[in-house]
Amino acid sequence: xxxxxxxxxxxxxxxxxxxxRAQVLAGTFAAGAGHSLAIHADGTLWATGNNAxxxxxTGNTTSQSGWVQVGSDATWVRVAAGAQHSLALQAxGTLWAxxxxxxxxxxTATNSGTGYVATPTPVPGTYTQLAAGRAHSLALRAxGTLWAxxxxxxxxxxxxxxxxxxxxxxxxxxTQVGSASYTQLAAGADFGLALRQDGxxxxxxxxxxxxxxxxxxxxTDTANPTPTRVGTDLYTQLAAGAQHSLALRPDGxxxxxxxxxYGQLGSTANNAANPTPMRVGTDLYTRLGAGAGHSLALQATGTLYAWGDNAxxxxxxxxxxSATPTAVPGTYVQLAAGSSHSLALQAxGALYAWGSNAxxxxxxxxxxxxxxxxxxxxxxxxxxxxxxxxxxADGTLWAxxxxxxxxxxDGTTTARTRPVQVGTDADWxxxxxxxxxxxxxxAxGTLWAxxxxxxxxxxxxxxSGTPTPxxxxxxxxxxxxxxxxxxxxxxxxxxADGTLYSWGWNVYGQLGNGxxxxxxxxxxxxxxxxxGGGSYTQLAAGLYHSVATMADGxxxxxxGxxxxxxxxxxxxxxxxxxxxxxxxxxxxxxTTTTVGSFHTLALSGDGILYTWGSNNNGQLGxxxxxxxxxxxxxxxxxxxxxxxxxxHSLALQAxGTLWAxxxxxxxxxxxxxxxxxxxxxQANVPTQEITQATTWTTLATGSGANFSLVRAPSGLTxxxxxxxxxxxxxDGTTTDYRRFDRLLQLSQQPLPVQLTAFEARRTAxxxxxxxxxxxxELHNAGFGVERSVDGRTFAHIGFVATKSQNSSTTLxxxxxxxxxxxxxxxxxxxxxxxGSITFSPVRYVDNYEGVAATLQLIPNPAAGGLVQAQxxxxxxxxxxxxxxxxxxxxxxxTLDVTGLAPGVYVVRACGPGQPAQAARLLVQ
Length: 924
What we know:
Elements: E1 11-12, E2 29-31, E3 35-39, E4 45-49, E5 64-69, E6 76-81, E7 85-90, E8 94-100, E9 116-126, E10 129-132, E11 136-140, E12 146-150, E13 175-176, E14 182-187, E15 191-196, E16 201-205, E17 228-229, E18 237-240, E19 244-248, E20 253-258, E21 278-284, E22 287-290, E23 294-298, E24 304-308, E25 322-328, E26 334-337, E27 341-345, E28 350-355, E29 367-374, E30 381-383, E31 387-391, E32 397-401, E33 416-421, E34 428-433, E35 437-442, E36 447-451, E37 470-475, E38 481-486, E39 490-495, E40 500-504, E41 528-529, E42 536-541, E43 545-550, E44 555-560, E45 577-583, E46 590-595, E47 599-604, E48 609-613, E49 633-635, E50 641-644, E51 648-652, E52 658-662, E53 683-688, E54 698-699, E55 707-711, E56 717-722, E57 744-745, E58 754-764, E59 767-776, E60 780-788, E61 795-801, E62 811-817, E63 824-832, E64 837-839, E65 843-845, E66 856-858, E67 866-870, E68 877-881, E69 887-892, E70 895-896, E71 903-911, E72 914-923
Antiparallel strand pairs: 1-14, 2-3, 3-4, 4-5, 6-7, 7-8, 8-9, 10-11, 11-12, 12-13, 14-15, 15-16, 16-17, 18-19, 19-20, 20-21, 22-23, 23-24, 24-25, 26-27, 27-28, 28-29, 30-31, 31-32, 32-33, 34-35, 35-36, 36-37, 38-39, 39-40, 40-41, 42-43, 43-44, 44-45, 46-47, 47-48, 48-49, 50-51, 51-52, 52-53, ...
């Protein structure tokens, strides 16, 4: 029989899984048996504590009593910690492991069964979630399949391979656990827990203390390799300790089972085996953590409770073990429990630690809860009709764009083209934006609103029903909110018990309270529960309709249905208004949903995306125009996150790539670009944004927006594309932009450098000269020079320091690229002294032919429409070929690239008595 190794059982939850609180990230820090991991705001990974098996990933086995960086990558998004091994996920979905590998728990054959690996090593596959047990590992893929590897003595891998073997046998190859799809997982010392998309809970592995929630082999060490359902109730969150389990039900109630030696089940029940879930008190909770012999739970108010073993002070209070949940000082947004230490994160990014520090796992001095490090709490971002909102990694709130109704919350009605801070508070966790109003949730569960309140959309009677702007945050009536969303003129919010509240405009029944306003001027400022009761987990609000999911994966909708957006057949000549939640009778169950103005998207647990409603701009992504718009139809691809603008849609894949479709302009082909394709051409099917980056992590939704906001691993930056007439891209200008190729800082940046000229010209076979000029410079550090062979992926080739950080006179610069053999694209990466980067337009240089090229294409790059061809004689025609040599535009007297997909093309010109010529053309 194997002895239990006391440890944290790491668990990871995506912020958009059922039951997750607001957009607080889970898995940005973790606690193991004697070590801790944390992802910083910039996406770098840090570790502290015991390193005997290389579990810190530093390349050696030297333990650390303070935080040290793991490698140099800045693209980490999730971590998990086992007894002596570590797991971490990058934005591109690759999973890395290091530390003890004696059971194959690293997912690699390197030193499997014999030793350790002291630096991060890749695990085969692409994943979205991960968890680490004593000596086994679990991970989910985007399609919901569950994979396991490592020790399987007790069947903790969910299969019978080598379980119960008298000779320990490593299992280093990730193996699928059955064929079911799961949405969430947790790893105990020698057992596993997982939720399916219908809210059912399944368990397998060791059941010595009843930790599987059933009596099968209870009290023995017999292997239980087949996932078995825990009762018949539904759950929304999980945590697994050494030999006990915790889970939340949809109503926020907390249930526990398994070992109760130290009172970790929150009761004085039998301290041996307890296979039947029992409720922990009567309070409601939003987050869970389970250590070797203690438990942690967070309430919507940000209060953290702890109970169970306290021999090392892991409860954060003085005294002996206790079966009574006791509050830990402070207000927190996320937590993790180690073997005998605890970690908790505040909204400002401060990471607190307490409990055992025998191996330096606290990252600082021991004792009561003290801040010893940092971790990333949220990347919450939202889009209004003409403005943007985002929470920074330090818990501060930032806004930019249109401000006529005070929707930026800065006390003015002045538009801002760069982010400005909303007040001075640093405890914000989630934002949402309507047409001209804003919502933001704090760590203590209070919800705040500002901007227009003419329809009561602020959830407060102040200025309700009047045109008077509310330019600073006011509190929405009620408390213990866990998530909020905003429609055009109405709002929805969840409370800790799963009850869904609504307020604002109700002409189309979008409040779901069984009635509708017949007077368009009627305001409903008081949050009121939607009809039908029930416990909801996700919510979304469109122009005039609302959608929400329940814990069983069922999807409900109400409000205006004139485009089939509610998922109900359109009644010809009828009102098409649904005033109470109506279940959408469509294939599958769902984990998350989002909506545009008149279209709806819903993601199933197996990563399949379904859409319905209006498709006038291709926003459904499945070319189903005119085919029963209320019926949910799948979109090609497997996705992990979704978002929607007014008439466009966005989705992330597990590999960190971003796909977009739908409207790509503002009604004028010369404006827009919200799909990030480098053009303003509509896309009817999912199309990868032009940079083809694999580091996107977070998408913003805005049901009235003609622009897009996306975020990478850093909690300090964002990227934007699309309409910018009000400065809603946050780049310091009001010029539309069509690519996600710049990361903008969430800070009050200096004025941008004014670039007045930028030219690229070939001067020799392998030399290109770049010349540019600026009219003014403020806080300029200099210019990075970047080159690309395909116009998509750019590489840094040099840096030109500024001639003056601050200047109001014209300054000129030159850079020579002496390794420029062949066609190339160039851009400048202007860098401010605060680290923010602004990219210049792209310039193209063709092959060196020994003489000046005659054929010139203007503009090049092109973004749709006509391209001028200079240097040709009378009667010349132009034909366009793709990179494979296939004709895509037949020879014609004019060159029109409208409708061409973004990419590189060859334009061939010929005419009577003229030599054939060719030039490359980049279509954005």
